[in-house]
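Re: beginner question about structure tokens

> Can someone show what the tokenized structure looks like for a real chain? I only ever see the sequence side.

Sure, here's an example I had lying around. Input first:
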Amino acid sequence: MSDITFAPEVRPVPIPVREIMPWAIFGGLLMMLAIYFIGAEEGATTLLSNLSTHEFVHDARHLLGFPCH
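And the corresponding structure tokens:
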């Protein structure tokens, strides 16, 4: 006799698209908001009147290639 026992085969369960879509849309909107604040929150298009947002995302702007100086 062998001491080896075989585990039952585990199959991945597909996730329906209707369950993924709301989270994908939410994630896309968050990414667009983040890109706005990193890339365009400065000058004429600013939503906030102070420079704290610009200073907070300053290094991310350079990392992603957005000019700011």
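Each token stands for a local structural state, so reading them left to right follows the chain. The chain has a mean pLDDT of 79.
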